[in-house]
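[Solved] Which block belongs to which protein?

Original post:
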Amino acid sequence: MQSSSRSKDFSQLFRSSPKELYSEKFYYAMDVDSEDLNNYNKTCDEIWVREPKDQMILICKKYLRFLHKSESWSVAYPFYDISLLLNYWIYDNLSRIYGDNNTDAIDLGFGALQGKWDTHDRIIRDRSYYEKCRPEPRKVNHEDWKNRKKLYDFYVDYDHLFLMAQIYHDKCEYYEKIKEMIPVCAYFKGKCSSGKYNCPDYFNKCEVKDLNSALQELPCHNTIKTKSVRTSEDGFSHRASDHTERPVDHAGGPTAKSDTQLEIGNSVIGKKVAHSVLGAAPVLLTATALYRVPGFVGSVEAEQTI
Protein backbone atom coordinates (compact mmCIF):
# COMPACT_ATOMS: atom_id res chain seq x y z
CA MET A 1 0.00 0.00 0.00
CA GLN A 2 1.29 3.43 -0.98
CA SER A 3 1.33 6.49 1.28
CA SER A 4 -1.82 8.58 1.64
CA SER A 5 -2.48 11.72 -0.38
CA ARG A 6 -5.07 14.48 -0.63
CA SER A 7 -5.39 14.03 -4.35
CA LYS A 8 -7.74 16.18 -6.38
CA ASP A 9 -6.60 14.92 -9.76
CA PHE A 10 -4.80 11.85 -11.09
CA SER A 11 -2.17 14.08 -12.68
CA GLN A 12 -1.08 15.20 -9.22
CA LEU A 13 -0.68 11.60 -8.08
CA PHE A 14 1.29 10.79 -11.21
CA ARG A 15 3.65 13.75 -10.84
CA SER A 16 4.20 13.16 -7.12
CA SER A 17 5.27 9.56 -7.67
CA PRO A 18 8.87 8.85 -6.53
CA LYS A 19 9.29 6.52 -9.51
CA GLU A 20 11.12 7.54 -12.68
CA LEU A 21 9.73 5.31 -15.40
CA TYR A 22 6.32 6.20 -16.81
CA SER A 23 4.72 2.79 -16.33
CA GLU A 24 5.92 2.67 -12.73
CA LYS A 25 4.61 6.18 -12.09
CA PHE A 26 1.22 5.18 -13.46
CA TYR A 27 0.95 2.04 -11.30
CA TYR A 28 2.12 3.98 -8.26
CA ALA A 29 -0.52 6.67 -8.83
CA MET A 30 -3.20 4.01 -9.22
CA ASP A 31 -2.16 2.24 -6.01
CA VAL A 32 -1.74 5.26 -3.76
CA ASP A 33 -4.35 5.90 -1.07
CA SER A 34 -6.01 9.30 -0.96
CA GLU A 35 -8.71 10.94 1.10
CA ASP A 36 -11.04 11.27 -1.87
CA LEU A 37 -11.40 7.48 -2.07
CA ASN A 38 -14.07 7.86 0.60
CA ASN A 39 -16.25 9.55 -2.02
CA TYR A 40 -16.83 6.11 -3.54
CA ASN A 41 -17.66 4.19 -0.37
CA LYS A 42 -21.37 3.79 -1.08
CA THR A 43 -20.93 2.90 -4.75
CA CYS A 44 -18.23 0.30 -4.19
CA ASP A 45 -19.55 -1.25 -0.98
CA GLU A 46 -22.45 -2.75 -2.92
CA ILE A 47 -20.46 -4.58 -5.60
CA TRP A 48 -21.03 -8.31 -6.06
CA VAL A 49 -17.72 -10.12 -6.03
CA ARG A 50 -16.14 -13.09 -4.33
CA GLU A 51 -14.28 -12.85 -1.06
CA PRO A 52 -12.11 -11.16 0.02
CA LYS A 53 -14.63 -8.46 -0.85
CA ASP A 54 -12.88 -5.71 1.13
CA GLN A 55 -9.86 -5.88 -1.19
CA MET A 56 -12.08 -5.66 -4.27
CA ILE A 57 -13.89 -2.67 -2.78
CA LEU A 58 -10.57 -0.82 -2.57
CA ILE A 59 -9.79 -1.68 -6.21
CA CYS A 60 -13.23 -0.38 -7.15
CA LYS A 61 -12.61 2.94 -5.38
CA LYS A 62 -9.25 3.45 -7.04
CA TYR A 63 -10.70 2.60 -10.43
CA LEU A 64 -13.54 5.14 -10.02
CA ARG A 65 -11.10 7.79 -8.81
CA PHE A 66 -9.13 7.28 -12.01
CA LEU A 67 -12.29 7.31 -14.13
CA HIS A 68 -13.43 10.61 -12.63
CA LYS A 69 -10.11 12.43 -12.34
CA SER A 70 -7.73 11.35 -15.08
CA GLU A 71 -8.89 13.17 -18.20
CA SER A 72 -6.42 16.03 -17.74
CA TRP A 73 -3.65 13.47 -17.27
CA SER A 74 -4.56 11.84 -20.57
CA VAL A 75 -4.20 15.19 -22.32
CA ALA A 76 -0.71 15.66 -20.88
CA TYR A 77 0.36 12.11 -21.80
CA PRO A 78 -1.50 11.22 -25.00
CA PHE A 79 1.12 8.77 -26.29
CA TYR A 80 0.08 5.97 -23.92
CA ASP A 81 -2.53 3.34 -24.65
CA ILE A 82 -4.36 4.07 -21.44
CA SER A 83 -6.60 1.07 -21.98
CA LEU A 84 -3.72 -1.41 -21.75
CA LEU A 85 -2.07 0.26 -18.76
CA LEU A 86 -5.37 0.40 -16.89
CA ASN A 87 -6.44 -3.14 -17.73
CA TYR A 88 -3.04 -4.56 -16.81
CA TRP A 89 -3.29 -2.75 -13.49
CA ILE A 90 -6.74 -4.26 -12.90
CA TYR A 91 -5.74 -7.76 -14.00
CA ASP A 92 -2.55 -7.72 -11.94
CA ASN A 93 -4.46 -6.73 -8.80
CA LEU A 94 -7.24 -9.28 -9.33
CA SER A 95 -4.62 -11.99 -9.87
CA ARG A 96 -2.98 -11.04 -6.59
CA ILE A 97 -6.31 -11.20 -4.78
CA TYR A 98 -7.72 -14.40 -6.30
CA GLY A 99 -4.71 -16.15 -7.82
CA ASP A 100 -3.65 -16.45 -11.47
CA ASN A 101 -5.67 -19.60 -12.13
CA ASN A 102 -8.94 -18.45 -10.56
CA THR A 103 -10.33 -17.11 -13.83
CA ASP A 104 -13.96 -17.21 -12.70
CA ALA A 105 -13.29 -14.88 -9.75
CA ILE A 106 -11.14 -12.60 -11.94
CA ASP A 107 -13.87 -12.40 -14.60
CA LEU A 108 -16.45 -11.64 -11.92
CA GLY A 109 -14.24 -8.84 -10.60
CA PHE A 110 -13.87 -7.38 -14.09
CA GLY A 111 -17.63 -7.63 -14.53
CA ALA A 112 -18.23 -5.68 -11.32
CA LEU A 113 -15.95 -2.88 -12.51
CA GLN A 114 -17.59 -2.91 -15.94
CA GLY A 115 -20.90 -2.40 -14.17
CA LYS A 116 -19.52 0.74 -12.53
CA TRP A 117 -18.35 2.02 -15.90
CA ASP A 118 -21.77 1.29 -17.45
CA THR A 119 -23.57 3.33 -14.80
CA HIS A 120 -21.19 6.26 -15.15
CA ASP A 121 -22.52 9.59 -16.43
CA ARG A 122 -23.53 8.83 -20.03
CA ILE A 123 -22.56 12.29 -21.30
CA ILE A 124 -19.04 11.83 -20.01
CA ARG A 125 -18.89 8.13 -20.81
CA ASP A 126 -19.53 8.66 -24.51
CA ARG A 127 -16.33 10.64 -24.90
CA SER A 128 -13.62 8.69 -26.67
CA TYR A 129 -11.26 8.91 -23.70
CA TYR A 130 -13.70 7.24 -21.32
CA GLU A 131 -14.30 4.46 -23.80
CA LYS A 132 -10.62 3.60 -23.32
CA CYS A 133 -11.17 3.42 -19.57
CA ARG A 134 -13.65 0.56 -19.81
CA PRO A 135 -12.44 -2.59 -18.03
CA GLU A 136 -11.84 -5.14 -20.78
CA PRO A 137 -10.36 -8.49 -19.71
CA ARG A 138 -10.03 -9.77 -23.30
CA LYS A 139 -7.20 -7.32 -23.86
CA VAL A 140 -5.05 -8.75 -21.10
CA ASN A 141 -6.38 -12.22 -20.31
CA HIS A 142 -3.68 -14.41 -21.88
CA GLU A 143 -1.74 -17.36 -20.52
CA ASP A 144 1.45 -15.34 -20.85
CA TRP A 145 -0.08 -12.09 -19.58
CA LYS A 146 2.84 -11.41 -17.23
CA ASN A 147 5.33 -11.41 -20.10
CA ARG A 148 2.92 -9.30 -22.15
CA LYS A 149 2.67 -6.80 -19.32
CA LYS A 150 6.46 -6.63 -19.04
CA LEU A 151 6.69 -6.08 -22.78
CA TYR A 152 4.10 -3.30 -22.79
CA ASP A 153 5.73 -1.58 -19.81
CA PHE A 154 9.01 -1.78 -21.73
CA TYR A 155 7.27 -0.27 -24.76
CA VAL A 156 5.98 2.64 -22.65
CA ASP A 157 9.32 3.21 -20.89
CA TYR A 158 11.63 2.47 -23.83
CA ASP A 159 13.08 5.91 -24.61
CA HIS A 160 13.11 7.09 -21.01
CA LEU A 161 14.69 3.84 -19.86
CA PHE A 162 17.70 4.19 -22.14
CA LEU A 163 18.02 7.87 -21.24
CA MET A 164 18.06 7.09 -17.51
CA ALA A 165 20.59 4.32 -18.09
CA GLN A 166 22.91 6.90 -19.68
CA ILE A 167 22.49 9.44 -16.87
CA TYR A 168 22.16 7.37 -13.69
CA HIS A 169 24.73 4.60 -13.81
CA ASP A 170 26.08 4.53 -10.24
CA LYS A 171 23.92 1.56 -9.26
CA CYS A 172 23.24 0.34 -12.81
CA GLU A 173 19.54 -0.04 -11.95
CA TYR A 174 18.27 0.91 -15.40
CA TYR A 175 20.95 -1.13 -17.13
CA GLU A 176 19.66 -4.17 -15.25
CA LYS A 177 16.05 -3.37 -16.20
CA ILE A 178 17.01 -3.37 -19.88
CA LYS A 179 18.99 -6.59 -19.40
CA GLU A 180 15.92 -8.25 -17.85
CA MET A 181 14.05 -7.69 -21.11
CA ILE A 182 16.45 -9.81 -23.19
CA PRO A 183 14.78 -13.16 -22.30
CA VAL A 184 11.31 -11.56 -22.62
CA CYS A 185 12.07 -10.32 -26.13
CA ALA A 186 13.59 -13.70 -27.01
CA TYR A 187 10.38 -15.35 -25.80
CA PHE A 188 8.17 -13.23 -28.05
CA LYS A 189 10.54 -13.50 -30.98
CA GLY A 190 10.15 -17.26 -30.87
CA LYS A 191 6.38 -17.05 -30.44
CA CYS A 192 5.77 -14.40 -33.09
CA SER A 193 7.86 -16.19 -35.71
CA SER A 194 5.56 -19.21 -35.63
CA GLY A 195 2.77 -17.41 -37.47
CA LYS A 196 0.16 -19.05 -35.22
CA TYR A 197 0.55 -16.76 -32.23
CA ASN A 198 -1.36 -13.59 -31.41
CA CYS A 199 1.74 -11.39 -31.37
CA PRO A 200 1.43 -8.11 -29.42
CA ASP A 201 1.50 -4.97 -31.58
CA TYR A 202 4.14 -3.47 -29.33
CA PHE A 203 6.61 -6.32 -29.91
CA ASN A 204 8.35 -4.02 -32.40
CA LYS A 205 10.28 -2.39 -29.53
CA CYS A 206 12.26 -5.61 -29.25
CA GLU A 207 13.31 -5.25 -32.87
CA VAL A 208 14.30 -1.57 -32.87
CA LYS A 209 17.76 -2.47 -31.64
CA ASP A 210 19.61 -5.53 -30.46
CA LEU A 211 19.49 -5.28 -26.67
CA ASN A 212 22.78 -7.13 -26.16
CA SER A 213 24.56 -4.63 -28.41
CA ALA A 214 22.70 -1.71 -26.83
CA LEU A 215 23.85 -2.75 -23.36
CA GLN A 216 27.49 -2.67 -24.46
CA GLU A 217 27.10 1.01 -25.33
CA LEU A 218 25.90 1.96 -21.85
CA PRO A 219 28.33 3.22 -19.15
CA CYS A 220 27.39 0.42 -16.78
CA HIS A 221 28.59 -2.27 -19.15
CA ASN A 222 32.27 -1.58 -18.44
CA THR A 223 31.55 -1.02 -14.74
CA ILE A 224 29.92 -4.43 -14.37
CA LYS A 225 32.59 -6.07 -16.52
CA THR A 226 35.35 -4.60 -14.33
CA LYS A 227 33.61 -5.78 -11.15
CA SER A 228 33.26 -9.25 -12.62
CA VAL A 229 36.99 -9.42 -13.42
CA ARG A 230 37.92 -8.22 -9.93
CA THR A 231 35.64 -10.80 -8.35
CA SER A 232 37.23 -13.56 -10.43
CA GLU A 233 40.74 -12.40 -9.54
CA ASP A 234 39.89 -12.22 -5.83
CA GLY A 235 38.46 -15.73 -5.97
CA PHE A 236 41.56 -17.06 -7.72
CA SER A 237 43.88 -15.40 -5.19
CA HIS A 238 41.87 -16.84 -2.32
CA ARG A 239 42.00 -20.37 -3.75
CA ALA A 240 45.74 -20.07 -4.45
CA SER A 241 46.32 -18.95 -0.86
CA ASP A 242 44.38 -21.95 0.45
CA HIS A 243 46.59 -24.33 -1.54
CA THR A 244 49.95 -22.82 -0.53
CA GLU A 245 49.35 -22.48 3.20
CA ARG A 246 50.29 -25.50 5.31
CA PRO A 247 49.20 -24.93 8.90
CA VAL A 248 51.51 -26.40 11.54
CA ASP A 249 50.33 -28.23 14.67
CA HIS A 250 46.64 -27.63 13.92
CA ALA A 251 44.15 -30.44 14.00
CA GLY A 252 43.44 -31.67 10.50
CA GLY A 253 46.53 -29.92 9.04
CA PRO A 254 49.52 -31.53 7.31
CA THR A 255 51.38 -32.02 10.61
CA ALA A 256 48.42 -33.68 12.22
CA LYS A 257 48.08 -35.92 9.19
CA SER A 258 51.75 -36.97 9.43
CA ASP A 259 51.38 -37.64 13.16
CA THR A 260 48.36 -39.76 12.48
CA GLN A 261 50.22 -41.77 9.87
CA LEU A 262 53.13 -42.25 12.30
CA GLU A 263 50.78 -43.46 15.01
CA ILE A 264 49.16 -45.87 12.59
CA GLY A 265 52.60 -47.18 11.54
CA ASN A 266 53.70 -47.70 15.13
CA SER A 267 50.44 -49.43 15.89
CA VAL A 268 50.95 -51.86 13.01
CA ILE A 269 54.50 -52.63 14.14
CA GLY A 270 53.30 -53.16 17.70
CA LYS A 271 50.63 -55.56 16.54
CA LYS A 272 53.16 -57.58 14.52
CA VAL A 273 55.48 -57.86 17.52
CA ALA A 274 52.62 -58.85 19.77
CA HIS A 275 51.48 -61.49 17.31
CA SER A 276 55.03 -62.89 17.16
CA VAL A 277 55.25 -63.09 20.95
CA LEU A 278 51.79 -64.54 21.31
CA GLY A 279 52.52 -67.08 18.59
CA ALA A 280 55.63 -68.29 20.46
CA ALA A 281 53.86 -68.54 23.81
CA PRO A 282 52.13 -71.92 23.20
CA VAL A 283 55.44 -73.51 22.23
CA LEU A 284 57.14 -72.26 25.38
CA LEU A 285 54.25 -73.34 27.56
CA THR A 286 54.20 -76.81 26.01
CA ALA A 287 57.94 -77.26 26.49
CA THR A 288 57.69 -76.17 30.09
CA ALA A 289 54.85 -78.55 30.78
CA LEU A 290 56.66 -81.52 29.26
CA TYR A 291 59.78 -80.63 31.19
CA ARG A 292 57.78 -81.17 34.35
CA VAL A 293 56.09 -84.49 33.32
CA PRO A 294 57.62 -87.48 35.21
CA GLY A 295 59.36 -89.99 32.97
CA PHE A 296 59.57 -87.62 30.05
CA VAL A 297 63.07 -87.33 28.73
CA GLY A 298 64.52 -84.10 29.93
CA SER A 299 62.06 -83.70 32.78
CA VAL A 300 63.15 -82.71 36.24
CA GLU A 301 62.45 -86.15 37.66
CA ALA A 302 64.35 -87.87 34.88
CA GLU A 303 67.37 -85.71 35.48
CA GLN A 304 67.24 -86.48 39.18
CA THR A 305 67.01 -90.23 38.51
CA ILE A 306 70.04 -90.13 36.29
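(Second protein starts here: sequence line, then its C-alpha coordinates.)
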Amino acid sequence: MYRKIINIDKNKGEPRYRQIINSVLQSIRMGKLKNNEKLPSVNDIAGAFNISRDTVMLAYNELKARGIVRSVPGKGYYIDSVDVEERERIFLLFDEFNAFKEDLYNSFIQHLEGRAMVDIFFHHFNPEVFASLVLDRKERYTSYVIMPANLPNVLEILNQLSQKRVYLLDRNPEYINDRYPCVYQDFHWDMYNGLCEGLGLLMKYKKLVLVYPGGKEPEGFLTGFKLFCERHRFPYQIIPSFQPPVLKGHVYILPNDRDLVHLVKDMGHKKLVAGRDVGIISLNDTGLKEIVAGGITTLSTDFVEMGKNLAQLVLSNKKICLKNPSRLNIRNSL
Protein backbone atom coordinates (compact mmCIF):
# COMPACT_ATOMS: atom_id res chain seq x y z
CA MET A 1 0.00 0.00 0.00
CA TYR A 2 2.77 2.42 0.96
CA ARG A 3 4.45 2.25 -2.43
CA LYS A 4 1.18 3.03 -4.21
CA ILE A 5 1.12 6.38 -2.40
CA ILE A 6 4.73 7.14 -1.49
CA ASN A 7 7.58 6.88 -3.97
CA ILE A 8 11.17 7.53 -2.87
CA ASP A 9 14.09 7.21 -5.25
CA LYS A 10 17.31 7.18 -3.21
CA ASN A 11 19.36 7.94 -6.32
CA LYS A 12 17.41 11.10 -7.02
CA GLY A 13 19.01 14.41 -6.05
CA GLU A 14 15.78 15.69 -4.49
CA PRO A 15 15.64 15.50 -0.66
CA ARG A 16 13.66 12.51 0.58
CA TYR A 17 11.27 14.58 2.68
CA ARG A 18 10.43 16.57 -0.46
CA GLN A 19 9.82 13.32 -2.38
CA ILE A 20 7.32 12.28 0.30
CA ILE A 21 5.51 15.61 0.01
CA ASN A 22 5.39 15.41 -3.77
CA SER A 23 4.21 11.78 -3.61
CA VAL A 24 1.26 12.72 -1.40
CA LEU A 25 0.37 15.69 -3.63
CA GLN A 26 0.58 13.54 -6.76
CA SER A 27 -1.55 10.80 -5.16
CA ILE A 28 -4.21 13.41 -4.39
CA ARG A 29 -4.11 14.73 -7.97
CA MET A 30 -4.49 11.18 -9.34
CA GLY A 31 -7.39 10.39 -7.01
CA LYS A 32 -5.47 7.78 -5.01
CA LEU A 33 -5.99 9.82 -1.83
CA LYS A 34 -9.28 11.47 -0.99
CA ASN A 35 -10.46 13.84 1.71
CA ASN A 36 -10.41 12.34 5.25
CA GLU A 37 -8.44 9.29 4.04
CA LYS A 38 -5.76 8.04 6.41
CA LEU A 39 -2.10 8.27 5.39
CA PRO A 40 0.55 5.64 6.09
CA SER A 41 2.01 6.11 9.56
CA VAL A 42 5.38 7.71 10.20
CA ASN A 43 6.82 4.39 11.37
CA ASP A 44 5.45 2.50 8.37
CA ILE A 45 7.03 4.88 5.85
CA ALA A 46 10.31 5.04 7.76
CA GLY A 47 10.49 1.25 7.91
CA ALA A 48 9.41 0.62 4.32
CA PHE A 49 12.00 2.99 2.84
CA ASN A 50 14.72 2.68 5.51
CA ILE A 51 14.69 6.39 6.31
CA SER A 52 14.51 8.28 9.61
CA ARG A 53 11.27 9.14 11.35
CA ASP A 54 12.44 12.77 11.38
CA THR A 55 12.47 12.81 7.58
CA VAL A 56 8.86 11.59 7.45
CA MET A 57 7.83 14.00 10.21
CA LEU A 58 9.38 16.91 8.31
CA ALA A 59 7.29 16.03 5.24
CA TYR A 60 4.07 15.57 7.21
CA ASN A 61 4.60 18.78 9.18
CA GLU A 62 5.02 20.77 5.97
CA LEU A 63 1.84 19.23 4.58
CA LYS A 64 0.12 20.18 7.85
CA ALA A 65 1.40 23.74 7.54
CA ARG A 66 -0.08 23.91 4.05
CA GLY A 67 -3.45 22.71 5.35
CA ILE A 68 -3.39 19.51 3.28
CA VAL A 69 -2.88 17.07 6.17
CA ARG A 70 -4.16 17.02 9.74
CA SER A 71 -3.00 14.89 12.65
CA VAL A 72 -5.33 13.15 15.09
CA PRO A 73 -3.58 12.29 18.39
CA GLY A 74 -3.38 8.54 18.89
CA LYS A 75 -4.77 7.78 15.43
CA GLY A 76 -2.45 9.20 12.79
CA TYR A 77 -2.46 11.54 9.81
CA TYR A 78 -5.40 12.23 7.49
CA ILE A 79 -6.00 14.16 4.30
CA ASP A 80 -7.60 17.46 5.30
CA SER A 81 -7.81 19.13 1.88
CA VAL A 82 -7.50 17.93 -1.70
CA ASP A 83 -6.75 21.46 -2.90
CA VAL A 84 -3.12 20.66 -3.58
CA GLU A 85 -2.53 23.88 -5.46
CA GLU A 86 -2.83 25.76 -2.18
CA ARG A 87 0.08 28.16 -1.82
CA GLU A 88 2.96 27.75 0.57
CA ARG A 89 2.89 29.78 3.78
CA ILE A 90 5.91 31.91 4.62
CA PHE A 91 6.71 33.40 8.02
CA LEU A 92 8.60 36.65 7.37
CA LEU A 93 10.25 38.26 10.40
CA PHE A 94 11.72 41.75 9.92
CA ASP A 95 13.62 43.70 12.56
CA GLU A 96 11.65 46.90 11.82
CA PHE A 97 9.66 48.52 9.03
CA ASN A 98 10.84 51.60 7.15
CA ALA A 99 10.93 52.92 3.59
CA PHE A 100 13.74 50.69 2.32
CA LYS A 101 12.37 47.59 4.08
CA GLU A 102 9.08 48.34 2.33
CA ASP A 103 10.94 48.22 -1.01
CA LEU A 104 12.41 44.87 0.03
CA TYR A 105 9.02 43.49 1.09
CA ASN A 106 7.23 44.64 -2.07
CA SER A 107 9.94 43.14 -4.27
CA PHE A 108 9.77 39.84 -2.37
CA ILE A 109 5.99 39.64 -2.79
CA GLN A 110 6.19 40.60 -6.46
CA HIS A 111 8.78 37.95 -7.29
CA LEU A 112 6.92 35.20 -5.43
CA GLU A 113 4.37 35.64 -8.24
CA GLY A 114 1.43 34.58 -6.09
CA ARG A 115 2.95 31.20 -5.29
CA ALA A 116 3.02 31.75 -1.52
CA MET A 117 1.08 33.44 1.23
CA VAL A 118 3.28 35.65 3.43
CA ASP A 119 2.65 36.74 7.02
CA ILE A 120 4.98 39.52 8.16
CA PHE A 121 6.05 40.20 11.76
CA PHE A 122 8.51 42.57 13.49
CA HIS A 123 10.76 41.93 16.47
CA HIS A 124 11.99 45.56 16.86
CA PHE A 125 15.38 44.27 18.11
CA ASN A 126 13.71 42.88 21.23
CA PRO A 127 15.07 39.39 22.16
CA GLU A 128 11.90 38.35 24.00
CA VAL A 129 9.65 39.40 21.13
CA PHE A 130 11.94 37.60 18.67
CA ALA A 131 11.82 34.35 20.64
CA SER A 132 8.07 34.53 21.18
CA LEU A 133 7.24 35.23 17.53
CA VAL A 134 9.40 32.37 16.25
CA LEU A 135 8.63 29.70 18.84
CA ASP A 136 4.89 30.33 18.99
CA ARG A 137 4.68 29.70 15.24
CA LYS A 138 7.24 26.97 14.74
CA GLU A 139 4.91 24.40 13.12
CA ARG A 140 2.54 26.71 11.27
CA TYR A 141 4.53 27.66 8.17
CA THR A 142 6.28 25.92 5.32
CA SER A 143 9.22 28.38 5.35
CA TYR A 144 10.68 30.84 7.85
CA VAL A 145 12.50 33.95 6.61
CA ILE A 146 14.19 35.72 9.51
CA MET A 147 16.24 38.87 10.06
CA PRO A 148 18.40 37.84 13.04
CA ALA A 149 19.90 41.32 13.61
CA ASN A 150 22.49 41.12 16.40
CA LEU A 151 20.19 39.59 19.00
CA PRO A 152 21.40 37.07 21.61
CA ASN A 153 20.49 33.36 21.56
CA VAL A 154 19.42 33.45 17.90
CA LEU A 155 20.99 30.09 17.07
CA GLU A 156 19.40 28.43 20.10
CA ILE A 157 15.98 29.61 18.90
CA LEU A 158 16.54 28.73 15.24
CA ASN A 159 17.64 25.23 16.26
CA GLN A 160 14.04 24.58 17.30
CA LEU A 161 12.90 25.01 13.69
CA SER A 162 13.56 22.59 10.88
CA GLN A 163 16.90 23.60 9.37
CA LYS A 164 15.56 22.82 5.89
CA ARG A 165 12.83 25.44 6.23
CA VAL A 166 14.79 28.46 7.56
CA TYR A 167 16.25 31.33 5.52
CA LEU A 168 18.22 34.23 6.95
CA LEU A 169 17.89 37.74 5.59
CA ASP A 170 20.10 40.84 5.74
CA ARG A 171 22.75 39.38 8.06
CA ASN A 172 24.76 36.16 8.06
CA PRO A 173 26.39 36.04 11.51
CA GLU A 174 29.69 34.17 11.76
CA TYR A 175 28.38 31.96 14.57
CA ILE A 176 25.72 30.61 12.18
CA ASN A 177 28.59 29.20 10.07
CA ASP A 178 26.50 29.17 6.86
CA ARG A 179 24.11 26.65 8.41
CA TYR A 180 21.10 28.29 6.75
CA PRO A 181 20.59 29.63 3.22
CA CYS A 182 20.56 33.41 3.20
CA VAL A 183 20.60 36.70 1.32
CA TYR A 184 22.88 39.03 3.24
CA GLN A 185 24.83 42.27 3.29
CA ASP A 186 28.57 42.28 3.91
CA PHE A 187 28.55 45.50 5.93
CA HIS A 188 32.33 45.67 6.42
CA TRP A 189 33.31 45.43 2.76
CA ASP A 190 30.23 47.29 1.53
CA MET A 191 31.30 50.27 3.64
CA TYR A 192 34.96 50.01 2.63
CA ASN A 193 34.34 49.51 -1.10
CA GLY A 194 31.61 52.15 -1.19
CA LEU A 195 33.94 54.78 0.27
CA CYS A 196 36.61 53.72 -2.22
CA GLU A 197 34.13 54.44 -5.03
CA GLY A 198 33.82 58.02 -3.76
CA LEU A 199 37.52 58.50 -2.98
CA GLY A 200 38.01 61.30 -5.52
CA LEU A 201 35.13 63.32 -4.06
CA LEU A 202 36.13 62.62 -0.46
CA MET A 203 39.61 64.06 -1.06
CA LYS A 204 38.23 67.62 -1.06
CA TYR A 205 37.16 67.32 2.60
CA LYS A 206 39.29 67.58 5.74
CA LYS A 207 37.71 64.90 7.90
CA LEU A 208 35.32 61.95 7.79
CA VAL A 209 32.79 61.59 10.60
CA LEU A 210 30.85 58.36 11.13
CA VAL A 211 27.74 58.63 13.27
CA TYR A 212 27.65 55.21 14.90
CA PRO A 213 25.25 54.74 17.83
CA GLY A 214 26.05 51.03 18.19
CA GLY A 215 23.18 48.89 19.40
CA LYS A 216 21.21 47.70 16.40
CA GLU A 217 23.71 49.04 13.85
CA PRO A 218 26.00 46.43 12.26
CA GLU A 219 29.56 46.48 13.59
CA GLY A 220 30.78 45.97 10.02
CA PHE A 221 29.94 49.60 9.23
CA LEU A 222 32.39 50.66 11.94
CA THR A 223 35.22 48.29 11.00
CA GLY A 224 34.91 49.00 7.28
CA PHE A 225 34.96 52.75 7.92
CA LYS A 226 38.07 52.53 10.11
CA LEU A 227 39.88 50.37 7.58
CA PHE A 228 39.18 52.85 4.78
CA CYS A 229 40.31 55.87 6.80
CA GLU A 230 43.50 54.17 7.98
CA ARG A 231 44.47 52.79 4.58
CA HIS A 232 43.85 56.12 2.84
CA ARG A 233 45.15 58.23 5.74
CA PHE A 234 41.97 60.20 6.28
CA PRO A 235 41.49 62.00 9.59
CA TYR A 236 38.32 60.56 11.07
CA GLN A 237 35.98 60.69 14.03
CA ILE A 238 33.29 58.37 15.36
CA ILE A 239 30.38 59.87 17.30
CA PRO A 240 27.22 58.22 18.73
CA SER A 241 24.81 60.81 17.28
CA PHE A 242 24.87 64.08 15.40
CA GLN A 243 24.87 67.15 17.62
CA PRO A 244 25.13 70.71 16.23
CA PRO A 245 27.13 72.53 15.16
CA VAL A 246 27.83 71.01 11.76
CA LEU A 247 31.46 71.64 10.82
CA LYS A 248 32.53 72.93 7.44
CA GLY A 249 34.94 70.67 5.55
CA HIS A 250 33.62 67.49 7.18
CA VAL A 251 31.89 64.52 5.57
CA TYR A 252 29.14 63.00 7.72
CA ILE A 253 28.21 59.35 7.25
CA LEU A 254 24.81 58.69 8.79
CA PRO A 255 23.10 55.32 9.40
CA ASN A 256 19.72 56.70 10.46
CA ASP A 257 17.42 59.30 8.99
CA ARG A 258 16.83 61.18 12.25
CA ASP A 259 20.45 62.31 12.33
CA LEU A 260 20.20 63.16 8.62
CA VAL A 261 17.27 65.49 9.28
CA HIS A 262 19.08 67.21 12.17
CA LEU A 263 22.21 67.66 10.05
CA VAL A 264 20.38 69.12 7.05
CA LYS A 265 18.41 71.51 9.29
CA ASP A 266 21.59 72.72 11.00
CA MET A 267 23.25 73.26 7.63
CA GLY A 268 20.27 75.37 6.57
CA HIS A 269 20.58 77.55 9.67
CA LYS A 270 24.27 78.13 8.92
CA LYS A 271 23.76 78.64 5.15
CA LEU A 272 26.09 75.74 4.37
CA VAL A 273 25.70 73.91 1.06
CA ALA A 274 25.82 70.11 0.80
CA GLY A 275 28.51 68.95 -1.59
CA ARG A 276 30.45 72.19 -1.29
CA ASP A 277 30.83 73.06 2.38
CA VAL A 278 29.79 69.77 3.95
CA GLY A 279 29.65 66.23 2.59
CA ILE A 280 26.79 63.86 3.39
CA ILE A 281 26.57 60.11 2.88
CA SER A 282 23.40 58.45 4.14
CA LEU A 283 23.17 54.68 4.57
CA ASN A 284 20.24 52.88 2.90
CA ASP A 285 18.69 54.46 -0.16
CA THR A 286 15.09 55.65 -0.57
CA GLY A 287 13.32 57.63 -3.25
CA LEU A 288 13.08 60.63 -0.92
CA LYS A 289 16.87 60.88 -0.66
CA GLU A 290 17.06 61.55 -4.39
CA ILE A 291 15.27 64.85 -3.69
CA VAL A 292 16.27 66.06 -0.19
CA ALA A 293 18.88 68.87 -0.19
CA GLY A 294 19.29 68.55 -3.94
CA GLY A 295 20.01 64.82 -3.69
CA ILE A 296 21.65 62.88 -0.86
CA THR A 297 24.51 60.51 -1.69
CA THR A 298 23.72 57.07 -0.31
CA LEU A 299 25.71 53.94 0.44
CA SER A 300 23.17 51.19 0.10
CA THR A 301 22.43 47.64 -0.80
CA ASP A 302 19.87 47.13 -3.55
CA PHE A 303 16.73 46.30 -1.57
CA VAL A 304 14.67 45.51 -4.67
CA GLU A 305 17.33 43.04 -5.77
CA MET A 306 17.41 41.60 -2.24
CA GLY A 307 13.68 40.88 -2.41
CA LYS A 308 14.08 39.27 -5.82
CA ASN A 309 17.01 37.12 -4.67
CA LEU A 310 15.13 36.04 -1.56
CA ALA A 311 12.04 34.99 -3.53
CA GLN A 312 14.15 32.98 -5.98
CA LEU A 313 16.00 31.31 -3.10
CA VAL A 314 12.80 30.27 -1.32
CA LEU A 315 11.01 29.09 -4.46
CA SER A 316 14.00 27.11 -5.72
CA ASN A 317 14.69 25.57 -2.30
CA LYS A 318 18.42 26.11 -2.92
CA LYS A 319 20.73 25.91 0.10
CA ILE A 320 23.16 28.72 -0.70
CA CYS A 321 24.14 32.09 0.73
CA LEU A 322 23.96 35.09 -1.61
CA LYS A 323 25.75 38.37 -0.96
CA ASN A 324 23.44 41.16 -2.06
CA PRO A 325 25.00 43.90 -4.22
CA SER A 326 25.77 47.31 -2.71
CA ARG A 327 26.92 50.57 -4.25
CA LEU A 328 27.61 54.24 -3.61
CA ASN A 329 24.86 56.31 -5.26
CA ILE A 330 26.63 59.62 -5.88
CA ARG A 331 24.42 62.71 -5.75
CA ASN A 332 24.90 66.42 -5.04
CA SER A 333 25.58 66.02 -1.30
CA LEU A 334 29.12 64.77 -1.94
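Accepted answer:
You had them paired correctly. Confirming on the second one: Residues 187-302 form a domain with the Rossmann fold fold (CATH 3.40.50.2300).
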